[in-house]
Amino acid sequence: MKQIKIILLILLLLPVLASAQESPAQKWLHSFEGRSGITTVSITSAMFKLLSKISSSDPEYQDIVRFAAKLQDFKIVLIDSDDPKKAPAKAEFNRLLSSAPLSQFEELMSIRESDNHIVFRVMQRNNHIQELIMTISGDDQAIIFIKGDFKLNELTQISDDMNITGMDKIKKLKK
Amino acid sequence: MKDIKALLEKYYNGETSLEEERRIQNHFAQHPGEAGPDAQLFQAIDAAQSGRNPARHARRRFRPLRYLAIGGPALAAGMALWFMLRQADPSPQATRPAAVPPAQQTISAAILVRPELSGEIQDEQQALEQARKALAYVSSKLNKGVNGIGRFSKLEQSISKIQTKEKS
User: Fold this and answer.
1) ipTM score here?
2) Which residue segment(s) compose the domain that B68 sits in?
3) Which long-range contacts (CB under 8 A, 24 or more apart) does A82-90 make?
4) Do residues B77 and B27 both lie within one domain?
5) Is residue B56 domain-shared with residue B10, that is, in the same domain?
6) Which pTM was predicted?
7) How near does any CA of chain B get to the CA of A122, in Å?
8) For B124, which of A39, A50, A71 is closest by C-beta distance?
């Protein structure tokens, strides 16, 4: 009887444990952290849960809050191109970029923009994106990683019309 | 002119003399602006007699109506396509004054809400602000790629429409 209880408990906890486990892409992105000249920014799953509970009268913030509720992880890795001292960081960035675990990703599109090459790769299930990696290489170096469960058109509908300049707009928010 | 018409009628009935045929030929040689099958026929005869290629001779003539008939629809189709593409891509970035020109904007300024931002964001408001800015950046690049594909397919459709019209 005790054994059955333990098995049931494991079965119940399995989805929780599975979701808590990091994907290969997430583990790979950790390798950029703490490197000199490379900036990493992340928003965790717990933070997205909190964000989804925010309410705002502003319809544009409602859209982003609704989208945030579908996200589990968000990471940014970048190097600014204007600093000549960052040449070693660029080399390190490129080295780590070449080791990206992209076997389960499919290339969505690639864009040539001035001196940059932008590539979008996605891992999807039933037309829902589970993970998206946007890499910028060339003059600038950056990676944006999004993990969640969303449709591509939900992401393309997000616009930058608000032109955020500071925290003034966000003060309107109420929890 | 009436005389030429009468001569032409006589010519097609096979009743003209050599002198009368020369008169018709001279008339069309002196009035190269005249169009129509009669003019074309006598210009061709004239060209053949003088050893010129009638087709090349005819091509050299300036025919404004013909150019207008061919070029007009093509120009109209081009303008319609240009207008359609402008409507499809209102280019909000062009209408909105940017604080910093994109060419001068660094990648961190384009993606991050603050250049000094680093690590895990703990503040809810800052997290929302940052997610909003970075997602908008990703979205704008995705839209740029999608619009590029859309423009290409529209251009292909318009070219195929023009080609079909030209064939018919």
Assistant:
1) 0.79
2) 64-91+102-167
3) A82/B106, A83/A37, A85/A37, A86/A37, A88/A36, A88/A37, A89/A35, A89/A36, A89/A37, A89/A38, A90/A37, A90/A141
4) no
5) yes
6) 0.58
7) 12
8) A50
